[in-house]
Amino acid sequence: MGGTLNMIGLGLAAIGPAIGVGLIFAAYVTGVARQPEAQGRLQSIAIFGFVLAEQFFIISLALAFVLKP
């Protein structure tokens, strides 16, 4: 039963980073559409934001398996 609740929590924890990544790349595409010459700078910022958003999911994934009773 405890393992099942951990997996449900993991699924819920994946929602936040998924929304964050979607918003990051939506802003990136909008920024490049408005200023194509700023693509290089915006791309590095978007990749950095992607890494920060995904680290929370990776930490929650690790915790879901570590805290499994």
UniProtKB/TrEMBL annotation:
GO terms, molecular function:
lipid binding; proton-transporting ATP synthase activity, rotational mechanism
Please report the stretch or stretches of sequence annotated as the V-ATPase proteolipid subunit C-like domain. Answer: 8-67
Q: At which residues is there a site annotated Reversibly protonated during proton transport?
A: E54
Keyword Aminoacyl-tRNA synthetase recorded: no
**Entry-linked CDD domains:** ATP-synt_Fo_c
- Topology in membrane: Multi-pass membrane protein
* Function statement: Key component of the F(0) channel; it plays a direct role in translocation across the membrane. A homomeric c-ring of between 10-14 subunits forms the central stalk rotor element with the F(1) delta and epsilon subunits. F(1)F(0) ATP synthase produces ATP from ADP in the presence of a proton or sodium gradient. F-type ATPases consist of two structural domains, F(1) containing the extramembraneous catalytic core and F(0) containing the membrane proton channel, linked together by a central stalk and a peripheral stalk. During catalysis, ATP synthesis in the catalytic domain of F(1) is coupled via a rotary mechanism of the central stalk subunits to proton translocation.
Query: What's the protein called, per UniProt?
Result: ATP synthase subunit c
Q: Which organism is it from?
A: Nocardioides marmoriginsengisoli
